[in-house]
Amino acid sequence: MAWRLKLVPDNTNINFFAIQWLTFGASVVAVIGSLILWATVGLNYGIDFRGGTTIRTESTIPVDIAAYRATLETFGFSDVAVTEVFDPAFRDDQHVAQVRLSPIEGEEAVTPEVIAQVEAALQQVDPSITFPSVESVGPKVSQELIWTAFLSVAAAIVGIFVIPMLYVVFQTMREKAKAA
């Protein structure tokens, strides 16, 4: 005899449309709350949206994230993120980190000269470090990403509001047509 867990009875009959106004109202409250938070707190844009640089580092000695951060803080970047990357395909002596840098306060982008200074400073922390990849996102690309993200959120809001409202309107019209 097999033991089976039964969470839902065989003859389930739940009328979800009986509570449609409650769930629709909860959606409206959630969206309005989100808009209020957006207007008061604002958005926390990452490097992709503000512009910045991502540097991939490789070394033969383990990554010292604290030393990397301490070195990078001296440059005055508005945002610095250092993460160690793990991959089973890496060799035993291959230690990879990803360094994300936002532009220095008052600057539009991280300049190639600043990137060279960062690389020189990190080489003083770890002489065996190499920089196989340096990628930058400029402010123009960032603005395009922000606009695309805005349009995506607007489309989602339309989907949340308009489609259920149209369904309710058509459902009401159908019920009135049946009654007539």
Nutshell version of this structure?
The chain has helices at 20-40, 47-50, 65-73, 112-125, 139-179, and strands at residues 52-59, 80-85, 95-101, 130-137. The chain has 180 residues and is an alpha+beta fold. The mean pLDDT is 82.
| Rg on CA atoms, Å | 27 Å
Percent helix among the residues? 40-55%
The total of helices stands at 5
- C-alpha termini separation: 55 Å
Shape: elongated
* Overall pLDDT score: 82
Strand coverage percent: 15-25%
Order of helix and strand elements from N to C terminus: HHEHEEHEH
SS-derived structural category: alpha+beta
Number of strands: 4
Strand order of the largest sheet: 2-3-1-4
Which sheet architecture does the biggest sheet show?
A: 4 strands, antiparallel
Taking pLDDT < 50 over at least 5 consecutive residues as the criterion, the unreliable ranges are none
